[in-house]
Design a protein that fits this description.
The structure is a homodimer.
Chain A (H helix, E strand, L loop, with lengths): L4 E6 L3 H10 L5 E7 L3 H13 L6 E3 L2 H5 L6 E4 L6 H10 L4 E3 L7 H14 L3 E3 L7 H11 L6 E9 L3 H5 L8 H7 L7 H10 L8 E8 L4 H8 L4 H4 L9 E8 L4 E7 L11 E4 L2 E4 L4 E4 L2 H4 L16 H4 L9 H4 L6 H15 L7 H8 L1 H10 L5 E2 L22
Parallel strand pairs in A: 1-2, 1-4, 2-3, 4-5, 5-6, 7-10
Antiparallel strand pairs in A: 7-11, 8-9, 8-14, 9-10, 11-12, 12-13
Helix pairs in contact in A: 4-5, 5-16, 6-9
Chain lengths: ~400, ~400
Amino acid sequence: MKNSVNIGIIGLGGRGASMVEVMAKMEDVNILAVCDKYQDRVDNVIKKLVGGGRPAPMGTVDYNEVLDMPGIDSVYIATDWECHVKIAIDSMKKGIPAAMEVGGAYTIDECWELVHTYEETGVWTMMMENCCYGEREMMVHNMVREGVFGDIVFCSGQYAHDLRDEVAYGEKNRHYRLRNYIARNCENYPTHELGPIAKILGINYGNRFVSMSSVCSRAAGMEDFVKQHKDLKPSLGNTKFNQTDIVKTFIKTENGELIELTLDTCLPRFYSRGFTVRGTKGLYQEDGDIVFLDKKLYRKNEWDQKKFWGRGKKFARKYNHPLWHDTTKEMLEAGHGGMDWFIIRAWIVSVKNGTLPPIDVYDAAAWMCITPLSELSIQNGGATVEIPDFTNGKYKNRTPRNDNIYDI
Amino acid sequence: MKNSVNIGIIGLGGRGASMVEVMAKMEDVNILAVCDKYQDRVDNVIKKLVGGGRPAPMGTVDYNEVLDMPGIDSVYIATDWECHVKIAIDSMKKGIPAAMEVGGAYTIDECWELVHTYEETGVWTMMMENCCYGEREMMVHNMVREGVFGDIVFCSGQYAHDLRDEVAYGEKNRHYRLRNYIARNCENYPTHELGPIAKILGINYGNRFVSMSSVCSRAAGMEDFVKQHKDLKPSLGNTKFNQTDIVKTFIKTENGELIELTLDTCLPRFYSRGFTVRGTKGLYQEDGDIVFLDKKLYRKNEWDQKKFWGRGKKFARKYNHPLWHDTTKEMLEAGHGGMDWFIIRAWIVSVKNGTLPPIDVYDAAAWMCITPLSELSIQNGGATVEIPDFTNGKYKNRTPRNDNIYDI
């Protein structure tokens, strides 16, 4: 076991730069290198690290220099979506375990390549799906394990986040979402909701995704937003956005559960992952933070949903994951209410201990492939498409890892 | 204009019997006949009416006797789903306008027959979709009309109601749901959520449903419920229920909106119609009773949905439908929080005034046809199916009626 790990960070946009700050707070993490294709981002991050009393890391605009740097134990990849898999593959090939930020894939082929590279090199990539460490997601997973909800029949979730500003000002902010929203129409960001659901349903561990279909609304939100903002007119006044406002995806699992995913990023709304789990004995629903159990006490108020708003909180003491029983201010402030701290720790602990990560290439491939498959389904009028089994049958006998507290 | 109307009531199960009580409170309604295929139900309703000081109506087990009774102005049909359309057609053919309770159709053919009979006889049938008169549904319709939510892109709704008890004890209670849940797998009850949405989107009034598809979960809830109740074992211990626990249906409209329907009746849960309207300027969402508008004041709290719970109530004063500004205790206690009173008044006023009803055969056909089409889609693995235009092109030039306050 290592006492500390030497890491490189590739991609210093919004996500990368904020995660550097979290990692810089961890005493067992040495940031040896930082990289972005824009030099000014590199300079800014180095300045911030040095200003905070950290040693200056090597800075570069070429990620290969990070992978070739002596002593690097692992890299964290937070580039644009298009480069995630390519860099993870290059990293594994050089013997360096990678932590890859979330996003959808572009082709089924790159999902297979991710898997094959792991199988050929024996070096892992972990997908950094922070929502797998969300407080409610972990609590509900616990409740499912203990049978509180009975047999699980249906799960749903969404990435419901008003991103009009981020997308529209993508040129100014050098953000990859803009070009993706212009060119594609798909479930472009499935993993925040699908990751926790896949873990709950044992996907790749005795269960698997079998088939799926997607339908979409029209694209009205972005165009309306551009019209409202005069400064966007020169660059986007005549732009047609292919990405529709609402994309719905249905996945069927081998064990018979139905999963509903929603991408909802171009209309005004509050943020919600809409995390919902339905079983024969009860439910959890994020909208309203509702727990409802098949008991007289609940049924007598079934007509007044207000009575159940906020009830999720009451179950936290009994069912929260141990990680969420001992949170510190530092963890909670790390980002996204604490999830970011835990996902980084999960990765760092895997590197230190030399164990396999809790979210592996099979998970990444199964979750990321939803994006190109949703594109295909929509192009074919909502047709049902098969989902590959990236484990090649191994899912039947795999059991979830149980090396440390971060295994989920 | 008539001062009072003479009505007959056909179907005296749970719904019919409770609606008789509401109608009996209306001074301009004379209940001339009551009918059910079970004599004891007929006897009980007559006894109750007489006990309440009303004249004894004619009682019969043959609905033709009601249709043939001299002086009948209209009939209200609350039989099992299977007989709704048949009796409405017989009624129209005898020159008697009918009020038909809600439910899905069994075939596309019966939807056409409903429409053709109206067109041939000139006698109307009104569909008694009470949820079109729900407080929030009417408020949101008003807000949509006034542009509060901008261009509407997506609407969703559900019939989410734990009916396990009603279904499982269907033999004892002589309830038609039992046989339907054993034999069919479909969106069997689409209109509570689809009716209000169709009115908001102007379906049959410049807009129409174009195509749809349905997917479903497995069927686990009913079997689990039967196992839990020993008294059900003799009759249902070996029964396989075809009806799945969750059925999702997507409808595309000619104007480009996407509609999502959910049937959710076999798992423990609180009641919710999940009524949701999404536009380029804001949203209403029943779960949490949330209004969210595209304004700074809202956006600054976008990460904390709790701040918006119950906000719908704050918009009631400004946007409630006039009907909901002057409710009396009697109306609110009439059933389902007041909706039942309004839908009955809408029907009675149409009969008294000799005007066409606010929910006509074209609406009924468009909403009810979702049931057989969902069956077809599910049988074909979620395939997209076309939805007929029951107006034969007339929808392009139809405008919503505006005869009285009940027109929606």
